[in-house]
């Protein structure tokens, strides 16, 4: 399950992604991102700082300043954002690629039935989530709007 913080990050990035597709994209203020995404401004400040430090967005100061996407949406993997915002995405520490730890109560990983069952499910999930990008989410939003008539 993703956290509320991750949902806010995705909503903000979708707004920035939509803006990046315009003929003349502009940097958006945090107030504008909050308004368009329906996200509280006080949460966005910290989230956008983390995403900026990861090199996905940039911030500029001044009258026409704000935040903008500096990577193409297709170059922003959702799995990296999940790890950035929420931490490891594996259901067990012994399955994590980025934060591996042996389970304290496990005598033998090779014969652990809990690990085996969750590994099968997790690898399927991981294949899907690692192939998903911000571009896919932007396209998904447009398709959903056409289907529901928004």
Automatic annotation (TrEMBL):
Superkingdom: Bacteria
NCBIfam families found in the cross-reference section: rrf2_super
Pfam families: Rrf2
Provenance organism: Pseudogemmobacter faecipullorum
Protein name as annotated: Rrf2 family transcriptional regulator
Keyword line: DNA-binding
InterPro entries xrefs: Tscrpt_reg_Rrf2, WH-like_DNA-bd_sf, WH_DNA-bd_sf
Transmembrane segments: none
